[in-house]
Structure formats: structure tokens, C-alpha cells
Amino acid sequence: MKKTILYSLAAGSILLLTVSCEDFLDKQPYASVSDDIALTTLADCETALNGVYSSIRGRYLPEGLSVYDIMTDNVVVPASWRNTYLDVYRYNFSADNGVMYNLWFNAYICIARANNILEVIDSKEGDEAAKKRIKGACLVARAWAHFDLVRAFAKPYDPVTASSDPGVPYIFTTTLDMKTRNTVQEVYDYLIADLRTVVDEQLLTGSDINYLTDAAARLLLSRAYLYVGEDQNVIQEYASFQALYASTYGVETDTAAFRKVWTDDTGKEIIFRIPIASNEFLLSRSMRNFWLGDDQPGGAKPEFIPTKNGAAGLYDLYESGDARVKIFFNDMETAKEGTQTLVYKYMGNAALASSFNINALKIFRYPELVLNYAEALARTGNSGAVGAVNSIRQARLATPYINFADKNDALEKIYLERRLEYCFEGHYWHDMKRYKKGFERVLQPGAHLAMAALTVSPEDIHWVWPIPVEEINGNTIIEQNPDY
Amino acid sequence: MKKLTLILIGLILAAGALFAQTVQVSGVVTDAIDGQPLPGVSVVVKGATVSTATDVNGRYTINVAGDATLVFTFVGMRAREEAVAGRATIDVALETEAKKLEDVVVVGYTTTRKGAVTGAISTVGNEKIGEVPVGNLTQMLQGQAAGVVAITSSGRPGAAATVLIRGVSSINSGSAPLYIIDGLPSSSVEFSAINTNDIESLTILKDASATAIYGSRAANGVILVTTKSGAGKDPGINYKGQFGVSLFQKDNFGLMNTQEKLAYEIAMGVLDLSNPAHVAQYNERSQYDFYQPDEMFRNPFMQSHELSFNSNTEKTKTYASVSMYRQDGIVERSGLERFTGRINLEQKVNSWLTFTTNNTVGYETNNLSVTADELDYYRNNYYSPIWSAYLLNPYERLRDDDGNLRDGASPGQEFYRWQYLNPLKQLELNTDVATHLNIRTNNFLDFKFTDDLTLRSTFGTNYHYYKRARNFAPASAWGEATNGTLYLYNELLNTYVQSNVLTYNTTFADKHSLKAYAGTETTGYYYSSENTFMIEVSHPSLNVPDAYTAPEGKGFSGSKGEYTLASFFGALNYNYDEKYFADITYREDGCSRFGKNKRWGGFWAAGLAWNMKNEGFLTNVGILSRSKLRFSAGTQGNANIGNYAALGLYGFSGITYNGIAGSGPSSPANDELTWERQLSFNVGYDFGFLDDRFTGTVEWYRRNTYDMILEVPLSLTSGFDLANKNIGEMYNTGIEFTFNAEIFKNQDWQVSIGGNFAYNKNEITKLFGDLDEMVWGDTGLKLQVGHPFGEFYSVRWAGVNPTNGDGLWYTAVDGVPDGGIINSYRESDKVMLGKSYFPSYTAGATLDVTWKGLNISALFSGIFDKYTINNNRYFLETSNGAWATYQRMTTAADFWQKPGDVTRLPRKDVTGIWNEERLIEKQDFVRLKNLMVSYTFDKKWLERTKFVKGLRIYVQGENLLTFTGYKGFDPEQISNVDLGAYPTPRIITGGIDITF
């Protein structure tokens, strides 16, 4: 009897094990889905598209926009500076700096998510218009991400050397392989081709500014054409845009309405913005806290203050009646340096939970289209440039220009207008790089005695960002930028 | 003459015949210690098959040949041989066996005599475990066994220790050993609700042979814990009670007093005596001088009570206990209170089936109250009570003249707002309470088919419920911005195991003894959690979710996960004449965590031992009482990675846009991901002199980890940054030495000492692909081939320039010093420092003196060649002028002020960096971990009371003395950074142990 029990127990347990073994060891997670079933239906692709947008937000918040102004003479550091972004401000960074890593990785995450959808979208069953919209948005997102990468990590576009200058890897399909860098020319060619597909095939037909639209694609195209020096195409794009959207977008001539662009995140100037929903407050660090640091009583604690030294600081370049002065800046009581003029562009949207001081981020604004147009006109010697610039100046209550003396004068004044209009929106550094300018920061009242001043020459290697060390560690065939 | 010879011959013959005749011998066998009769003693005729046993009165009767020899044996007692020599009555007093060799230890799924073990094991006696007042079992392992490092990085009551056995053998796959309690794999979290008095034995398995049978998860060693049963004990009731106090141990920072601080503020230019407002401040502040840690910390009481019951009949053995343990922490509003109950029952159902069930329930409440702690993120926040004790200036008053807490520490202070409020008062406003409920059952069915063939079937499961509620009141600094915040965490952890082990014992050809066993085991582990976060409380006195109102301020999250293991294993233990031992083990495991193609792994081990003492040439060497040489080799595995690490996944958490859910790839697939493995070798020699009065062990080992799972960097262009791959290699090698010496022993006195010492060397031999080195994020560490894991990588400090007060650092190119010096800190000047945060040397020493019933025992423990980044000193010293308005170490006053000054710190505007070499400090220490003075009342004296069977009283102290040069809170820490660690207190208790 005992032996029977023994044998049956042994047999039973072995049988039990072999039958259920493989199932017993096959465990699927509860909070994620396996990648072979994640994009099965069209609805799955919509969810994945939100993932693409989410990664765009990740690229820009909180410092994705601001860091480009920290690297210019738009700001100096105050006496109470606690060394935030030390290496970036001092042009002393190397390949292990987190800012470069954040841009590189967030951009490629966006590209990977977009590519995953693009690979399967055509085969999904469902509404054709939705499929086109998803495809369009992914192509724009992909092109845009590569654009942000190439203009930071590569030399500025130079028609003579672009086909040999190293750019960034342009990714069309997701793989785990190591990649080499495409040339600057190739990157721009591909991204312009992606944007052209969206525009020419009319993939995007919506007008919700929380999402990418045809207008946004066209604005990016206008910017891309400008960077590669295809001025005729810039002019052409402007004309097409006017034909399609003159009644939807424009420059706000009413100052009160212009202020609302910043306080309420609304207005016809906004072509694309990143919304912040209530369940995203904790994910989004407040831009107001970044620039003003006044979330606690006792005075503002800004880490960076606008340059204002009575001569060549950013603040000094506005005319005193310019509407932008009172909207972009504000004199406030700081904790350690008395009253200072501080960046007020991101003062917080009262409708979005006052305790968090959050704004939706206005990424694409209409005036850039006009300024791109003006610059293209100036480069081609067209006299329409002054009128284009004046349309902005008049709206902003600044004295319009009578005339430009010559092409150089035109370009300098357009360059200045871009700086005045787009300060703290991540444009100025790229313009300085395109124009091959250096800059100088000088001491001003309230600035940090030892660390504020700095002179940066246009030959400084830091105009071309180093590829992050994390990429070099995982990719032995990619070429790092020189001198890093 | 002839007649005499005949008579003589006749007598001799008669005598011989007398001797050769069968004689009836009887007698009583007693315990030599107390004279009590011993039932169940085996009485055997040597060389014959005749045997009997003593009855309940210790009496035996046996018929033997007159020239026979009787052998008396009983477990735990030294065997005695008595030549009959014609005697009719032979009384024997048996002595307790020198415990060390014949202890029965649990190794693998069976028990073995320690003498037969071929592997490296250490046991920690249960008398040591039961009485040391610790909130978490892992806290008391330090110093007890060679090669075992058990350091709590926090003095918070109940904090688990980091336990490392023979160095750290994995970078990513966890270094904690496998804990098995009553056969059920457990994690150190579950220890927090276990009554330490319920533990019968704790065995630490260190090498391949000992751990082989747990092979698949034993790469870091195994700690086996068995709980008490009623067996082997006299029935009775036992009460253990303890009362004591925890005392704050002064730190080593050397903080400033008021005079020094005010002088420093003047020198720094922060206090300007030409300004009348400052002069008024100066005068007011000069009145007060506090050593703030004394003001912030307290010396609370602790108590513990346990009532246990055991009973023992032929069929049923029971052990039951209830206990209460309460220990408050030295930080305000931190403490732990625990209740446990246990019932262990062993029932002999019939002659071939025994059923055992061990069940326990434990409930523990932890008051955490926002401390700088491993459970908290607010380490260096000003209101963390530990941190503020060191940041508050000596002139800041926490209490007014009546002893009540003031609202602000220093009203009128116009510097940082943060210095205004009283941290202790803030603590009162906020709560943070964690509760654990642990329910555990282990059940065994033992089938005895024949005397040689047995089967043990096990089923065990553990449910651990964890809840934590943190509430920041709107009136407190942390709750102000959100008008009240509530965080709730709920977690359930469940582990279960089912195993079946068939054991066969046999002896053949007289001297060959063989034990074989084979079995199966399935284990599973499941967790689920839900968390809630909300803000805007409607009334400050409420703290439940219903009271929080902001719709957009509510956050919810939660998840589940699980993993499973299935195994088949078998082993053979063979010995020849107790002289030559050989063990061989094999185990095949499959784990759900690994890639589809590579789930299963096979692990083997072999051990050989030679008991040289039993060899003819040594048997008669009296001095050498023990001599055993051991050798083992084997492979072990490690599966301590994420539950779904091999899968390619899309995740949703944190991915939303415009409030709507989004998805994105979260990890790349690796179907080839498999077990991390270790090949290890161990050579050991056990020796004893003078009848085992001096015993010791020397071991050498080497553990090679390969297929180490590392997160290998990918090209970021793929959208992923890291992927798990089996790719790295590392080794640990070292020696261990343990000894015990009974220096002096007589009727009344016994003096013994013991010690253990271990040296471990660790080195990474392969990283990934062509990469030989990798900076480990922002930790101050770097992984590099040819260097140990845990080595610091930092810029070296070159001193201060006396001419201009610049801070100077040594330069380097590509990690190699190039002999230059520069006056600014650059990341590119980092070099490997040859210092690691894992210790190379560990040692323990014990001293035990007994005089009649009085016993004094001491345990010292020491750790050497270990470093850490003393981040505290960044804030208190090297940050220089940047933090001049907070408290400083006295050494901070030595900063450069004018040309020609030769100082420790540079000009006041030169701020240090949190992880530079100046702050990487040696954390070596020697500590008197435990000192106990106890008195055990004589049993004979107690007999007179008729009901008290045993009584012992004692006084003990934990962490009484520490010798260290480390300038920090506490050198007993194992982390790369020390910042605001909860200091380890001294604990002094007195207790009583009484048995009825």
C-alpha cells in the first residue's frame, strides 16, 4: 500500500509538472502589452499616436525650449545663482551633459514611436481619413524631430559642405542596430521630403491647435527651406499659406489679444501648442517656476535674468513703447537682489489650476512665417522685406522701418526682430548659429560677480553640440563631433 | 605445587568462564550536568546486535557476555563505552557533546550532521537570536559569521540590513542572499513581521556545495531559518520580557558652538557688525548655545514580551507563542510596534505519516514621520528632522523658556525663509504611518515508507499586506502649497512553494553510507499595488480620501506582477567509514523571467571531504581532535531581474497627451535572456585541538560570475537606451578564518573566545562588447574592467592656492592623471580612486566568561577598507560660502581670507562639488555590537519553588562603543553616498527569561 502511494505521488507530481510547466512559466505583464499585439487595430494606432505627441511634450518641457536661451546673451545669471545649468551657460559642457542627452534621446523616442506606426498604418482597417491623419502626424513628428536634432548636433547648413558635413542618423525603420550619421544635406533632403508628402497628399485636414495640422507642417517647411537657403521656396510657401489660412491665422494687432496669447494660450497667432491636461500637471514642470522661481513667498528666485545693462542687453533693444516689453517682462521683487526685470512670458494660465502656474506651450506661432518670408525676400534682394517686418512691428507698437539700406542691413534688422519677438522661445540660439555670430555677456546690477560675464566666439566648438556619451557607449560606429 | 597450579588454572578458567558467561547488567543513565535521568538512551553491545534503551526513569537492563562492552548513545551527548568486566550494575553519566561537530543542520531539503557537510556553512545559535533587541532579523547577523556583512544603513527601528555573503557578485541582478524560512523562499521585507524568538536555527550557506541544491537562486548565498517546534524540549511555558532605552550616539562632525559660528559669520561677511540691525542679532544670538542634535533627538524606551508554550507527547509536539515588540526611534515620531502569534504543530498521524504545520500571523505598525530614510525622499530637505538637526545654527531656539516648541526657530531671521520654521513643530503636523500584516503557513507531510525511504511534501504560502498613509497638513511647510496632501499606498505580496523530496538512506558493506534524494519544487511570487494621491483637504483635521477635493489634483496608479519557478533536482551524499565524504548535486530550473528560448538552466555541484582525524595515523594523535579537509565546486544561478525583463513591451504609464492615454515601446525583446551564472570553488580545513577545546576553520574561495545580466547601452536612435543582456563577468575571491577557543574550564569557570575574519577581493573582468568602462550615471562610481565593482570615480583635490585662495584640482587625460593642477573643477579630470564602497575586510570577535550561573559575553564587529561619499560634509563644510548661513563643522572656519593664508578650504566663493574626492571618506570602524551580563539560576535551587523550571536575568547593551575616524553620522552604512542617514542608537536593555 505504501509503495502504491509512493508511485502515484511521484507519477502525479511529475505529470502535473510536465503538463502545466510551460504555461506555468509563461507570464505576461499586467501593466504593459507585448509589442507584437500593441498595434493590432486602428484604435491602437490612435493610442500610439498620443504616445508620439507625448514624446514631443517630453522634448520641450521643461527646459527643451529654455535651454537655447540660456546659451545666449539673452540672459545672465544673478548673484544668488546656484549653478543650475552651469556648464551649458558657461559653454563648458561635454558629451556627458544631460541637456544633450535629453534632446537626443527624446527626439529619437519620438522618431521610433512614429516609425512603429508608419510601418503598419497602411494595413489597418478603418476610416481612411483617420489613417491619413495618423500617417500625416507621424511624418511631421518624424521630420520635426530630425530637424531639431540636425540643427543642434551638426554644423549649420552650408551649401558648399553640406553633402559631406556629418549630420545625424535619419531613421526610417525601427531596429536595434547601430547607425552612422547621414550628411547634413541628406537629413534636410529627407525631412523636407517627409513634410512635402504631408502637404502635397493633404494628409492633415484638421484645425485643432492641440494637434499637428497642415498649417504646422507648412510652417516647418518654411523654416526648413530657409535653413537650406531655398529662398524661392520660402516665398512660395508663404504665398500658399496665405491662400489657405489667411482667415485662420495672422499677427495679433490688438495688444490685449496678443497678451491673451500668453495668459490664456489662445489666439490666431498660435499654430500649434502643447496642451497640459489636469492629469498631466505633475508631469509638467511649470515654466513660470523655471524663469521666476516665485512659488514660495519671500520673493522670486530666478536662476536666470534677462540682460539689461543700458546698452546692448536684450531689454535695452526694445523701444520703450513696444507692447512686448510689458508682456514679456515684468519688474518683480526678488529674494536676494532687490527689484529686477524678469522673464514674464510664462506667467501661468489662470484657467489651468492656479496652484501650478502652468501654461500650454506655444511651439509654433504665426509671426515666424512672416519673418522667414522677410528674410527670404531680403536674401533675394526683394524690397518687400521691409513691409513684412513692419507688419510685425506695427502690431507690436514699435516704430516701423522706412527702408533697409542694403541686404546686410535688412538681414541684421530681421535678425534683431526675430530676437525681440521670439526671445525665450528657443529661436535665438539657432539664429545666432545660422548667422555665425558670437556674443558677449557683461555684468549688470544683480548679476553674479564671478560667473555672469562671458564672451563666446563664433568658432567655439560648443555651437555644435556633442553627441551624448550614452549614444557613443551604445554605438561604436557613430562619429563624434570634433574636439569632444 | 601442582595443586596450586591446578587451582589457579581452574580459577582462571572459571574467571574466564565467568567473563564469558551471559550476565544481566542494569543501571541508570543520567545527564552529567544536572543528574537527571535520561530516557531513551540507546544501550548497545559493541560488536553485537543486542541493544536496548533506557526507560522513563533512565533505567536499563541488558543481558550480555561478561567480557562485552556496552556503548551508550544519545543525541546531543557524547557516546560512552563501558566494559562490563563482570559488573552487574553500571551507572553512567553522559556529558553533553562538544556541540560543534554533531549538530544537526538543515542543508538543502534535508537535515545533515554538520560533521558530514562538505560545504562552507556557518550557524548562528538561537540563544543569540532570541535576546538581541532588533526590529528586523537581518540586523543581528553582523559579526556572527566570517564573510557575512550585514549592515543596516539606517538606525530606524525595523530597518532591514543589506546582507552580503562573500562580497558582491552581481551588478544588476541583486546581491541579497536567498532567505528560506521553513522551506518557503522569503524576502527581507517579510522579516519585518517575524518574532525573532520563534527562530530555532539560522544557518548561512556560503559555497557551491552547501548551496547547490538551491542552485538556481543561490549565487549570493543562502540563509536558512527554521522555526521552533515542540520536539526535543521539555513541555512548559516560557516568558521572555525585556525593557530598555535607546540612546542617541554623538556624531563625529565636530559642529560649531555659538561663539565659533558667529565668528565664522563675521569672517564670511554674512554678519556685519557695522550694521546696527546685525549687532542686535549678534547680541541676541550670543545668549543661546545648543548642541542641536540633543535638542532634536530623544532617548525613547523599548519593550518586548513573549509568552511561548511547548508540549511534547508521543504523537503530538506543539510550540506556540505570542509576542509584542515595541521600539521607538530616536527621531521624533518614528518607531515600531509589532504583535505576532505562532502555532507550530507536529502530529504523528500513524507509523508512516507525520503532519507538521507552522503558522504565524504578525502585525506591525511603523511610524515613519517624514525622516531622512531609505523609505523617504526628503533626505536633505530642511524639515527632515535628522537633517535639520545638523543644519540649525547653535543659537536657534527650538523651545521657549517653558520648554514648549516655538513656531519658528529664529524669528526675525531675514535670510532664507526655510530657516524660519521649527522642524519639530512641523513634524507634529504631518503623519506617515506604514502597517504590515503578514500571514504565513508552512505545512509538511512526511511519509515514511520504510526506515530508509521517506518522502516530504511541502506546501507553504505567505501573504504580506503593506499599507502606508502619508499626510501633509495644510499648516505645514510641505502641505502649504497644495493645501494638504494625502498619499496612500497599498501592496500585497504573495509567495508560495510546493515541493516534494524523496530521500533514501542506506548503508552497505558495513562502511559505505549513502543518502540519495530527488525532488521537484514549484515557487511563485505575486504582487499587486494601488496608490492614491490627492490634494486640497476640506478641513485640516481630516485625512481620508473623501476629505480631499481638488478634481485635477487626484492621482491614481497601480500595477501587478508575478514570476514563477519550476525545478527538478537530485543529490547523492556518500561517505566511507565517516572518513571520506562525497556529495554531488544537480538541479534544473526554469524561470518565467527569462526569454522563451532560454528559460531553463542546469546547476551542479560536487563536494569532497576527508575527515583526517578518523584515519589511523591521526586517531591516536591526542592533541589534534579534529581535522577535516573540504573541497567543493559548483555552479549557481541568479534570477534577480525584473519580472518581464525578456519581453518586448509597450507601456502606457506616464504617457498621455491632452489628458488622453498614449502608448509607446517601453523595452526591447530579448528572447535569449537567461540565468546569470556563477562558478565557484571552495577549499576549507576544519581543525580542533585538545578535545575540541580549540577549533577553527580556514577557507579559501573563488566565485566567478559570468553571463552577468547588464543593462547594455543601445544606440539611442532605436528609441531605447538600454537592453538586458547576459554579457558581463566578475569574480570574487577571498579567505575566511574562524576560530573558537575554550581558554579555561573547570567546575565553576569557563572562559572562551572566538573570532572570525574575512578578506574579499572583487574585480570586474568583462563589461560589454568592446566597452571596458562605463560611468554609472550620477553616482560617483564607474564600472571598469580590472577594477572592483563599487569603485569611486572623481576629481582629485589638490589643495588651496595660498596666493589667491583658489581651489585646486589635479588634472587628468582620459582618466589618467597627467601631473597638472587647475583651479576649476572639470568633469574631464575624473580618475578611478582605488576606493570602493564595499568593504574588503570584515571581522568579528566574541568573548564569553562564565562563573557558575553568571555569564558575560561580548561581540565585537569590524569592517575595513570601505569608503563612501560623505555628502553631509558637502553641506556642512566644503560648500564653503554658499551655505554659510547654516550650521557648519568647525573645520569650515579654516577658509582662505588673505594672501599668504595656508588653509583647508579655499576662498569663500569657491564651492565644492557633492561627489569630489575630498568627500570620499574611509568608513572603517570597530564596534562593540553587544555586551551581555546574565545570570542563570541553578536548577537545583529552582526545584524548591516547585513550579519554576528555569530563570535567567540579564542586562545587555547594543552598539555601546564605536571606534572610527569617519566624520559622519554613523560609519555603519553600505551605500555609495551618505546623506542624512538615520543614526544607529545605543540600546540598553534588561530582561528576564523564565520557564514554568
Structure overview:
The complex is a heterodimer of chains A (484) and B (996). Chain A has 484 residues and is mainly α. Helix content of chain A is 45%, strand content 7%. Chain A is built from 17 helices and nine strands. In chain A, strand 5 (329-333) and strand 6 form a beta hairpin. In chain A, helix 6 runs antiparallel to helix 7 (184-200) and helix 13 runs antiparallel to helix 14. The termini of chain A are far apart. The model of chain A has no long low-confidence stretch (mean pLDDT 89). The interface between A and B is large, with 84 and 82 residues. Strand 1 of chain A pairs antiparallel with strand 30 of chain B.
List keywords for this structure.
heterodimer; A: 484 residues; mainly alpha; Serine Threonine Protein Phosphatase 5, Tetratricopeptide repeat; two-stranded antiparallel sheet; globular; B: 996 residues; mainly beta; Immunoglobulin-like; 22-stranded antiparallel barrel; 5-stranded mixed beta sheet; 52 strands
Question: Mind telling me the CATH superfamily name of the domain at 21-97 in chain B?
Answer: Carboxypeptidase-like, regulatory domain
> Can you summarize the main beta sheet of chain A?
2 strands, antiparallel
Counting DSSP E segments of at least 2 residues, the number of strands of chain A comes to 9
Count structural domains of chain A: 1
Report the uncertain regions of chain B: 12-20, 97-102, 411-418
Portion of residues in helices of chain B? under 10%
Shape of chain A: globular
Assigned CATH architecture of the domain at 21-97 in chain B? Sandwich
